[in-house]
């Protein structure tokens, strides 16, 4: 950490013939202000965590497409007169978030605070990591449900009720409550006040990256998994495809993403901790310089 700090700090070291008589740098690409250096340090710390959010959001992005495709092939009737619109099945995730967040904030956080002595009960990175776990569980359950739906499918329409999709959507709601909200709070708290807009933009970039990555993944699977006698996994008729394999693939990617996230999180230092470490390093340097000066004066 100290070596990385020193590496970035070199950009603010004034060398000979690098400033004008009025104090402005001759070349702003060679000499930066201390504020600019601190901003780059902040981005360097947060970027690995931000990258892990892209993979974890893929499962949320695909929810609006393939889950609806499943619902269209299932029994959506409630009673004899009402049929649930396939596109509205995702509201189960929103209902889960709406029920869970008040319970989490009002009951669970105070209980965890007494155990961990942490202001928020758990750290922001722990909250994001829990969301990643729920994302994996949601994809595993989605794969199992899709496997059963295909087995029960008859003449293009499954006899399974559409509410068999509820477990994966509930788990996805927990994923959003922990992961998405955790990422938003993480970016807002870890960026300096004057960089909050960049933090909000990074979260939007995470969603954009997840959408593009999901599109690339779907395109590759269309081309790679199709054979002469069998359609690809994600063919338009999901009864002939293997959507369950796609869900398992996302779960596998989620496992690798969790391992990467744990590696990055174990080496991350929160903003307050970084300032404390840098102050300690500065104090040590001041002591060393004073000792050298004292020795020089004594001789």
Automatic annotation (TrEMBL):
The keyword Transmembrane applies. Its main location: membrane. It is a multi-pass membrane protein. The chain crosses the membrane at residues 49-72, 84-103, 124-145, 165-187, 199-225, 245-265. It is found in: Membrane. Keywords: Membrane, Transmembrane, Transmembrane helix. The keyword Transmembrane helix applies. GO terms for molecular function: transmembrane transporter activity. GO terms for cellular component: membrane. Belongs to the major facilitator superfamily. Proton-dependent oligopeptide transporter (POT/PTR) (TC 2.A.17) family. This is Uncharacterized protein. It comes from Cannabis sativa (Hemp).
């Amino acid at each position: 950490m100290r070596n990385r700090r020193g590496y970035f700090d070199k950009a603010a070291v004034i060398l000979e013939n690098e400033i004008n008589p009025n104090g402005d740098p001759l070349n702003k690409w060679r000499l930066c202000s201390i504020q600019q250096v601190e901003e780059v340090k902040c981005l360097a710390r947060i970027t690995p965590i931000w990258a892990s959010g892209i993979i974890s959001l893929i499962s949320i992005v695909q929810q609006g497409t393939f889950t609806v495709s499943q619902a269209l092939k299932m029994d959506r009737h409630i009673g004899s007169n009402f049929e649930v619109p396939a596109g509205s099945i995702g509201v189960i995730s929103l209902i889960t978030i709406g029920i869970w967040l008040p319970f989490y904030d009002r009951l669970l956080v105070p209980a965890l605070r007494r155990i961990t002595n942490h202001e928020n009960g758990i750290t922001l990175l722990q909250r994001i990591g829990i969301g990643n776990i729920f994302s994996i569980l949601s994809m595993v359950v989605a794969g199992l449900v899709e496997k059963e739906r295909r087995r029960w499918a008859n003449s293009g329409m499954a006899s399974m009720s559409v509410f068999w999709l509820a477990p994966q959507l509930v788990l996805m709601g927990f994923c959003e409550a922990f992961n998405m909200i955790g990422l938003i709070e993480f970016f807002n708290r870890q960026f300096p006040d004057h960089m909050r807009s960049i933090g909000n933009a990074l979260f939007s970039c995470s969603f954009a990256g997840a959408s593009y990555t999901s599109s690339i993944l779907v395109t590759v699977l269309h081309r790679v998994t199709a054979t002469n006698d069998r359609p690809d996994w994600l063919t338009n008729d999901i009864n002939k495809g293997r959507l369950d394999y796609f869900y398992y693939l996302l779960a596998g990617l989620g496992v690798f993403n969790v391992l990467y996230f744990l590696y990055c999180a174990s080496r991350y230092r929160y903003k307050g901790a970084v300032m404390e470490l840098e102050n300690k390093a500065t104090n040590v340097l001041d002591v060393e310089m004073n000792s050298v000066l004292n020795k020089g004066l004594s001789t």
